[in-house]
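Subject: mismatched residue count in predicted assembly?

I count 541 residues in my input, but I want to confirm that the predicted structure covers every chain. Input:
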Amino acid sequence: MNALARAVSAEWLKLRSVRSTWWFAGGALLTMLLVAVLEAEDTAGFLRGQGRPVEPVSSVLEGVEWVQLVFGSFGMLAVTSEYATRGIVVTLACTPSRTRLLLAKTAVVGAAVFVAGGLTAVLGVAASAPLLQRYWEFDAGQVAGRILAMAAYMALVAALALGLGTLIRRSAGTVTVLFVLLYVLPLGLQGVAGSLDVELLVTVAGFTPGPAGERFMAGEPAFGLVLTAWAVAAVVAGVWVMRRRDA
Amino acid sequence: MITLDGLTKRYGGKTAVDDLTLELTPGTVTGFLGPNGAGKSTAMRVILGLDAPTCGTALIGGRRYADLDRPLRTVGALLDARAVHPARSGRDHLRAMALSQDISFSRVEEVLALTGMTDAARRRAGTYSLGMSQRLGIAGALLGDPQVLMLDEPVNGLDPDGVRWIRTLLRSLAAEGRTVFVSSHLMSEMERTADRLIVLGRGRLLADESMERLAAGAGVRVRGPRLLPLAGVLPAARWTGPEELTVTGHTSEQIGRRAHELGLVLYELRPVESSLEESYMRLTANSAEYGAQR
Ligand SMILES: Nc1ncnc2c1ncn2[C@@H]1O[C@H](COP(=O)(O)OP(=O)(O)OP(=O)(O)O)[C@@H](O)[C@H]1O
Ligand SMILES: [Mg+2]
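Triage response: the counts match. Full output below for your records.
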């Protein structure tokens, strides 16, 4: 096995051998079902009068807004828990290449969140079905595409959080920065744009991870590239800093 | 096998390791001594590539640690026994290490048995006592069957049985031709385990000697009625009593012969074994940073 494959298999075992991983998966699923059902009920009530069709994934899109923080924290913990427990000492003794280590961690976290996120979305759609089915125009291909986009979005948010966690090393700080980046930054930019009347800032706000993700999941693949750029930038910055920093 | 050349590590303004040059040879247990904060752990961290040296190099068989392909198969290290995820079982901890080095899971069971951790292996590491964590750490160090072992205070927290086990383990590893580098504050234990001692004080090398020489550093006790002429020809002689000299740097044979040449009567001629602890105290008298007020 080559060095990267070895690091990947080690990181995968590390991830699945702690209980918190499964708590995150369960937490993400619960959050998704709760939000999706509530949202579906809302939408159903609203549509009852109008009879307009609705996309099957509409309620799940709302769920992703919440679940992304769960998966983000999960991605972050892959690194910050190592610093908190000092396990990073053993990890780096096993895999001295910081680049290889973070690539392995990103691959494992990304793949795990892609699968778990995709499953969560599927189950969210299923849970919304009893409430919304009557208003659906179900196009299997389109629904599958949307779910894949959501899974990719959540995996990219997790990778972004992993990169931030590497830069910051502490969980509390990383969660704060992630929250600001996903929710506060776009609102702040739009607010400033409104009060100063600067159109450019609205455009900029649209390229922050949250809004870019919404457009990506709404069916604009180009915004997937914007998101990927954010995740890659965070992980590359993490590698760069880690290579220059004492463990 | 391990070569340090002018190794220096500064943290901000604090010099933790100061221009350290030494070579660790296979087949010996090298003890690493020094007061708290002397820089022992720092030197080991730099050897493992965890911290980057400010200047100088640390090489293992001529290569930097980071350039080793499957490093645990060359160097096994235990730096901090508590540096384990508390929610992961001891067995999974070792298995993850094994996967990263292409080591079979059966080897994991071997080192678990060797360290007496088989029964505890399925429990979460957070529930381990200090001694059990230490054993798990040692299991991790042995995992890759490495030529070089580097252990930072491995007997810390071990029961008397464990201490003796470590002693025989390290001796047998060295006897197999491996390089063993071990730090400790337990002088009596070091005296029984190490062949060679490296003493550090405030980051600097204070001594690098064989155990015999360091422990024999106190000299030879000479007692007789008229020793003045002998004191005259042996500059390293000190009066330690009215009729007693203590001579360093000469063997009792040399001193006896010299006394004979001078026609002196001797009542006693005896090498005084100082304990390692005494030699250590003398060496580090001026370099303990965090000593209690005396
Ligand atoms: N990451 C760090 N940042 C700043 N200073 C550090 C760091 N690591 C170590 N030091 C300092 O470097 C010096 C050497 O520390 P080190 O841990 O190597 O000593 P030691 O010989 O292992 O001591 P002990 O016997 O107590 O384990 C100490 O003064 C310590 O405070
Ligand atoms: Mg130390």
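Residues B 40-41, 152 surround magnesium ion (ligand 2) (CB under 6 Å). Marking this ticket as 'not a bug'.
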